[in-house]
């Protein structure tokens, strides 16, 4: 199982270090074997000596250059970062990233051998427009993306479920994950209002290979609890 924390625009560098250390200690103390990822805010990136994989929430598809406000490969290399989140709905919808730009980023970091957590998901009006329209919308988010890339992890995150406390029904999650598995055999995470009280149930669903957690991951004890759930589920298999 894969358990990933997207810290978004939260936690300073000092707080992030404490967070990563707490997760690392928890995993070591409890001999946990799950793949744990943490995505700190850009200015909280650092060199972490840990088995937890620390990745970037974003970077521009360039080594360095004149791209005000962005970071490039040099900045990731400084901290040995080889993992990146691409296509998150907040970057698509709030920052206005187009599929073209996202695919460009994907290909740039793919060529460099990065592990990529690639996010897809529909806004509410697309879901309400019916399965066919919703799948067309999601299909378009696969344009320009190599779904056979061996270091690809996909996260299905319905936009309307992110940070809202709403989640699709378990049946809906299974239905869409089953569809998405036809497009790519990469590990497939669910994201969107995953909390301690629903993580176990969601991770146990068919075709769910883990979770990408935002707000509920900010409380490190809760995130660690979700990693424990993943470990327990793995042992059952
Ligand atoms: P959330 O965010 O858990 O706060 O809904 C998930 C995400 O955006 O990855």
Looking at this protein, list some descriptive labels.
single chain, 237 residues, alpha/beta, 9 helices, 15% strand
Outline:
With 237 residues, the protein is α/β, with parallel strands linked by helices. The protein is 40% helix and 15% strand. An 8-stranded parallel β-sheet has the order 3-2-1-8-7-6-5-4, covered by helices on one side.
> Sheet bearing the most strands, described?
8 strands, parallel
Q: What is the alpha-carbon Rg in Å?
A: 17 Å
Q: Ends: how far apart?
A: 11 Å
Structural class: alpha/beta
Count of runs of 4 or more consecutive helical residues: 9
Strand order of the largest sheet: 3-2-1-8-7-6-5-4
Please tell me what the overall shape is.
Answer: globular
The counted number of beta strands is 8
Series of secondary-structure elements, N-terminal to C-terminal: EHEEHEHHEHHEHEHEH
Uncertain runs: none
């Amino acid at each position: 199982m894969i358990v990933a924390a997207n810290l978004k625009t939260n936690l300073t560098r000092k707080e992030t270090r404490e967070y990563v250390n707490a997760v690392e200690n928890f995993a070591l103390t409890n001999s946990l074997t799950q793949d744990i990822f943490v995505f700190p805010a850009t200015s909280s990136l650092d060199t972490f000596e840990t088995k937890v994989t620390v990745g970037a929430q974003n970077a521009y598809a360039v080594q360095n250059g004149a791209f005000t406000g962005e970071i490039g490969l040099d900045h990731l290399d400084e901290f040995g970062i080889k993992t990146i989140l691409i296509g998150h709905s907040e970057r698509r919808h709030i920052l206005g990233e187009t599929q073209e730009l996202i695919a460009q980023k994907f290909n740039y970091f793919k060529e460099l051998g990065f592990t990529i957590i690639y996010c897809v998901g529909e806004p509410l009006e697309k879901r309400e427009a019916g399965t066919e329209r919703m799948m067309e919308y999601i299909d378009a988010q696969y344009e320009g993306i190599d779904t056979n890339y061996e270091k690809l992890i996909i996260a299905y995150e319905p936009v309307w479920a992110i940070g809202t406390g709403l989640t699709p029904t378990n049946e809906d999650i299974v239905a869409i994950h089953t569809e998405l598995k036809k497009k790519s055999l990469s590990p497939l995470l669910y994201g969107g209002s995953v909390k301690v009280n629903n993580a176990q149930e969601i991770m146990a669903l068919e075709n769910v290979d883990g979770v990408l957690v935002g707000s509920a991951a900010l409380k490190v004890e809760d995130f660690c609890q979700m990693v424990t759930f993943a470990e327990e589920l793995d042992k059952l298999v």
